Amino acid sequence: MNILSIETSCDETSVALLTDTALTHLTASQIDVHRITGGIVPEVAAREHVQVITPLVEEVITQSGLTQKDIDRIAVTSGPGLITSLMVGVETARTLGFTWNIPVFPINHIEGHIAANFLENDDIEFPAVALVVSGGHTELLYVPEPGTYELIGATRDDAAGECFDKCARILGLQYPGGPEISREAKAGNAQAYDFPRPMIDSKNYDFSFSGLKTAVLYFHRDNPNAPLVDVCASAEAAIAEVLVFKTKRAVKEYKAKSLLVGGGVAANQLLRTKLAELDASLYIPEPEYCTDNAAMIAAACKFHDEPNAELFDFKADPNWELTPR
Predict the structure, then answer these.
(1) Residue 30 three-state SS
(2) In the chain, what is the straight-line distance between the N-terminal and C-terminal CA atoms, in Å?
(3) For residue 218, what are the domain limits?
(4) Rounded CA separation 280/129 (Å)
């Protein structure tokens, strides 16, 4: 099966062509554009997608050595995400599907992050627990079998990646903030400052990171000369501890054989190290497949037998929740 996939949920324009034996994958980053404003401006992101999406599709097909006639499916991220960005990908996929007479599969972005683990693994044992942690999402899901999901916990405010970015901005670091904080933290003392671990003692699996961000804001205001490396290390440790603590409890309660991790924050080395200590087989994609990418959308498409909507019936949905099927 040859799947052409498109991902434009936020600020990465990504196209992939996945076959049974090969993957061709290209992503156009907007980091330099959004670094100017210190964060993503949705309208700017959408305009950047429009400029590069068609050339990327053409280049991926060319590099794959296939032709349009060899493509069996088109998969596209339809939500959740930024509505203006999503619309670029959805309308591109819809146009190609109509023109080429190829079925189009709307794919949930969260499912894509989970499915990224199947790009290089075909022997994952179930049931599993999935942790999706990125700039826009922090969710724990129970996955009894491939393609079936139950949301068991999510952030009530800021996502973990958003907390990283906002803390970085407070500390004068450039966007995106997660990699910058991690880079500084390598030389710091994670026990230097006792930042809060929000909701770590709650009996549910929900998260909250806005309070941690505020704690860093006030600390930096009152202690502007505190060593940056120690502040970064302490903040990173607080975020990682909450994520690991709740994930560990979910793995135990749901008797998970595997832990599937995805999302941009999954590239964080401290988080990867701590999750490896849990009592389940750990799967985390390579860093290039942790961030938003079209390869994961193609992988998720394999879980679906038929499109879940007619070509002109589905639309971009910025609030699309991944629910049990």
Answers:
(1) coil
(2) 23
(3) 123-284
(4) 9
Six-digit token pair at 177?
A: 């903030």
Q: Are residues 263 and 297 in the same domain?
A: no
Six-digit token string for 287: 């860093």
Beta-carbon contacts of residue 58 (< 8 Å; ≥ 6 apart)? none
What radius of gyration, in Å, describes the C-alpha atoms of the chain?
20
Q: Distance (Å, rounded) from C-alpha 234 to C-alpha 60?
A: 42
Alpha-carbon gap, residue 114 to 216, rounded angstroms: 31
Closest CA to 123 of 106, 103, 102, 146: 146
Q: Which residues pair with 126 in a beta bridge?
A: none
Distance (Å, rounded) from C-alpha 82 to C-alpha 6? Answer: 15
> Are residue 295 and residue 154 in the same domain, yes or no?
no
- Write the CA distances from 240 to 77, 99, 129, 236, integer angstroms: 28, 46, 17, 6
Task: Report yes or no on 16 lying in a domain.
Answer: yes
Residue type, 141: L
Instruction: Give phi and psi for 305, each to the nearest 5.
Output: -80, -35
- Mean pLDDT, 10 residues at a time, over the chain (325 residues)? 97 97 95 88 95 98 97 98 98 97 97 97 96 95 95 96 96 93 97 96 95 97 98 98 97 97 96 95 96 97 90 93 72
Whether residues 127 and 254 share a domain: the answer is yes
- What pLDDT is recorded for position 300? 97
Would you give the DSSP letter of residue 15?
E
